[in-house]
Amino acid sequence: MNPGGSAAPWPRVVAHADMDAFYASVEQLDNPALRGLPVIVGGRSRRGVVTSASYEARRFGVRSAMPAHEAHRLCPQGIFVPGRMARYAEISRVVRTTFDEFSPIVEPLSLDEAFLDLTGTHRLFASPMDAGRALKHRVREATGLVVSVGIAPTKMAAKILSDLSKPDGLRIVEPDELTDFLGPLPVERLWGVGRVTLERMHQAGIATIGDLARADAARLHAMFGAAGPHLHELALGRDPRPVVGDYERKSYGEESTFEHDLALESLELARVLIAHSDALGRRLRADRVRARTVTLKLKLARPLGQGRYPVVTRSQSLEAPTDDGAEVARVARALLARVREREQVRLAGVQVHNLVRDAHAAAQLALFGDAPAREARHDRLNRALDKVAARFGEEAVTRGLVHAERAAPTRRIK
Predict the structure, then answer these.
(1) In this structure, are residues 44 and 82 in contact, taking their beta carbons and an 8 Å threshold?
(2) Cα-to-chain-centroid distance, residue 258
(3) Which pLDDT value is given to residue 400?
(4) What is residue 388's predicted lDDT score, i.e. its pLDDT?
(5) DSSP SS3 for 290
(6) pLDDT of residue 125
């Protein structure tokens, strides 16, 4: 197969599509008065974090996941707006439907990005580049938003290309150009090269992907264990990982960083856990899944240096899977009572995992005596509240009593 017209055949055609400044772009789409202005989503409290920044804000150095106080310092004229996760999810569903028009194999990574297996699209498009152009046009037509696309024979290279093409870009690398493209790039562009690994590579004189490709595989294994040869293969342009079309979400999470540190026993912390749990229940019901396990995450206020803080987690599995936010909140608060560290807290989050599809979970509930009757009552109440939230917003009805500034929903570690 040679869809690109190059001398080397394409073993696979992989596209990585990433919406540009997605949350901020949605805000500018819905409110034309914000267009052309430095919009920053999230981070309205000084202790929060930036969820998304428009390209007008990025010119000042503002980036996603940046502490809010740093964003305020870099861009004091920035327009900080709260996130609207329900709206972002709504647009994301349109984007996903558009991706499905181009490939039956789509692997979402988050609300705003996905891999597409375009192998075989030469039957519809003259080249992968033409497929990329058509994809960009169709996304803009369907949503009014811009997507950047990278196309390569491997997932890793496609992801790098889409990052390099932003904003509103389209880049492609042919199979016989792959190693030449990768060679000059910083080695931290590779998946799996984090801060600690990068420091050790620099100490070993490895600064670029080309340096890593030329390194001795046995030496890399001695330095980094099994990860060493794997990174060496990636540096050589060898990435056999397929686009996984039957991807299912493994967990859901909600978390927030507080304006002021909270005591473990404070009512404010309990209320935030309730608010997060309610939000998780809505998301579980919307996706028709239930969770078997609840995890509490706390970031303590004691600094460790270099912007790091101790993280404490506690988990508990349930007798029966649930999509009820009240049940999730009950477990989260019970886990909070088990935390022995009596320190102030700067961040709190709730995560649910060990997911099962709703039909399978309902069958299991029949094993628990009068559980079906109780479950039916809770289900009717929750569905009614979901309708209110869908029509009037998530804060129209709440047990949490406070607004919790939430981070983006957890889908998968990128």
Answers:
(1) yes
(2) 21
(3) 47
(4) 61
(5) strand
(6) 85
Give yes or no for a cis peptide into 175 (omega within 30° of 0). no
Residue 86 is predicted with a pLDDT of 84
Torsion sign, CA atoms 311, 317, 323, 328: negative
> Which neighbouring-strand residues pair with 298?
312, 348
Could you tell me the two tokens for 174?
Answer: 């042919």
113 is catalytic: yes
220-to-36, 200, 201, 228, 234 alpha-carbon distances in Å: 47, 11, 9, 5, 13
CA atoms of 334 and 331, how far apart (whole Å)? 5
Half-sphere exposure of 240 (CA within 13 A, CB side): 2
pTM score: 0.71
Phi and psi, residue 406, nearest 5°: -95, 150
Contact (CB, 8 A) for 71 and 279: no
* Amino acid at the residue 176: D
What are the average pLDDT values for consecutive 10-residue runs of the chain, which has 414 residues?
54 95 97 97 77 95 89 94 88 94 91 92 83 96 97 96 95 94 95 88 95 93 91 93 78 85 92 91 88 96 85 94 94 95 92 81 49 60 64 54 49 37
CA distances from 318 to 276, 352, 353, 354 (A): 18, 11, 11, 10
Out of 27, 56, 113, 255, the active site residue is 113
